[in-house]
User: Which sequence fits this backbone?
């Protein structure tokens, strides 16, 4: 697939033709209508530098504990572009919903969830001109928000996702960054003014050095506000401590603050050139309070429950003011 096609349709798969080392993973997150239950499933493919290929499915949820990872043979992986779908084993994932069948016995996990119309960001590429650079990790957002209908079944217990809210993103490249902060949350689709928030701050190796890259989008109703390295967005404050995370962003007259209270964390496997052999952690039951101002005017203030957060090697991130709280 050409770079231009990837900018227009970032969901499309390149895993079967890319040179190694290479990974590609799609992240499907589902939050119940009341925000009390959140479930994420990640299908993908990894092609190691040593010539070993395998596909995989991993799942986490909150409340848990569910931290499930199952490798599959490379031959169990199949992807299609029109309409987009990814198949791993007996499971299928797409922009219209998922059908999940994996595990057995106490580790059996299944889901049948249909999605409402996805809301991609505008423009679709969240990396802007950085999409043209040979980076170790590329990022795409496929749907900021969409409605859910269906259920998840964990260990024999069925959990309804009717009226819930979904989110889809993906990553691809040779390895995840050395350090990053990631936040994501949605208000219920039934809210008077539905909103979605996603923010990634990561160490980006570039040429012989590195920079701290920013991609953040707040979507409120039909409006979107984007803060990114390539549009003069910047991180003016980053503080993290036991159970809390405080971030402040700026672009022109816009100011965005996000204060999070982190919940429980579950382990996830992340890609390196050698394989899916790096352990990180993600929370799916955090709460994020977001406030957006323009000059002295308030544009939005709201809270995202059942939110997702990752904090990985955050001391590596170099921002205007960053520190670890006591």
Assistant:
């Amino acid at each position: 697939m050409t770079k231009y096609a990837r900018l227009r349709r970032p969901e499309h798969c390149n895993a079967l033709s890319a040179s190694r080392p290479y990974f590609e993973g799609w992240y499907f997150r589902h939050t119940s209508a009341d925000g009390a239950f959140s479930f994420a499933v990640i299908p993908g493919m990894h092609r190691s530098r040593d010539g070993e290929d395998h596909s995989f499915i991993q799942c986490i949820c909150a409340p848990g504990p569910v931290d499930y990872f199952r490798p599959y043979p490379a031959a169990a992986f199949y992807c299609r572009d029109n309409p987009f779908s990814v198949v791993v084993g007996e499971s299928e994932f797409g922009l219209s919903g998922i059908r999940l069948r994996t595990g057995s016995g106490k580790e059996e996990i299944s889901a049948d969830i249909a999605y409402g119309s996805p809301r991609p960001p505008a423009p679709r590429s969240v990396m802007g001109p950085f999409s043209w650079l040979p980076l170790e990790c590329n990022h795409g957002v496929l749907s900021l928000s969409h409605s859910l209908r269906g259920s998840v079944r964990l260990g024999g217990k069925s959990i309804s996702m009717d009226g819930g809210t979904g989110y889809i993103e993906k990553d691809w490249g040779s390895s995840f960054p050395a350090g990053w902060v990631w936040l994501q949350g949605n208000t219920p689709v039934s809210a008077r003014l539905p909103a979605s928030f996603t923010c990634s701050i990561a160490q980006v190796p570039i040429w012989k050095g590195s920079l701290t890259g920013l991609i953040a989008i707040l979507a409120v109703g039909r409006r979107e506000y984007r803060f990114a390295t390539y549009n003069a967005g910047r991180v003016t404050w980053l503080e993290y401590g036991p159970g809390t995370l405080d971030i402040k962003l700026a672009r022109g007259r816009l100011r965005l603050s996000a204060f999070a209270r982190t919940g429980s964390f579950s382990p996830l496997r992340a890609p390196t050139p050698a394989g899916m052999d790096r352990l990180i952690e993600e929370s799916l039951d955090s709460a994020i309070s977001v406030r957006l101002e323009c000059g002295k005017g308030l544009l939005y203030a709201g809270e995202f429950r059942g939110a997702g957060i990752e904090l990985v090697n955050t001391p590596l991130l170099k921002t205007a003011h960053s520190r670890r709280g006591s």
About this structure: Helices lie at 3-8. The chain has a mean pLDDT of 91. Residues 3-8 form the longest helix (6 residues). The chain has one helix and 23 strands.
